[in-house]
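Please, structure for the following, as tokens.
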Amino acid sequence: MDDTANSLSDPGTLPVLDLGAFLAAEPGAAENLATELRSACESLGFFFLTNHGISKDLINRIFTETERFHSQPQAKKDAIAINQNQRGYVKPGATLVSHSTYNENTKFDSNETLVMATEHRPDNPGRQTGKRFYGENQWPDGLPGFKDTVTEFMETMTNFGKSLLPVWA
């Protein structure tokens, strides 16, 4: 049994997948990472990534911006309430997740959420026809730098996710 499988036998331990060799394009790294990823997903369903290449500065900035948004008065957050395109603020107690086949959930979530998504270009056919989920994000007023940091983070994470497609394949 490999080390990944051993770590999965302890429910208090998340598997740690090191992306360094894969991102450095070392021979065999993609295959090794794919094996570790498969094991983690099949055994526990969660994992921790190290050496992912996302700058600590960007991570710190997105946490700071998230805290800035959620520290605002309720009325400011409510001003960008979730819309038909599923973008915006969801206040605590507004969501009842009921898609589990294992549990009949009857309690509303107590968390608050800010939903942002890919902003499609104005010439995107879905956006031009007003197709649901293709609208623009709702950006909060009075938080200079918020939009820039969130946009940078989303672009970075999208590119990172795309770089992992060969591992998933």
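The helical segments are 3-8, 20-23, 29-43, 56-70, 74-78, 125-128, 146-163, 165-168. The chain has eight helices and four strands.
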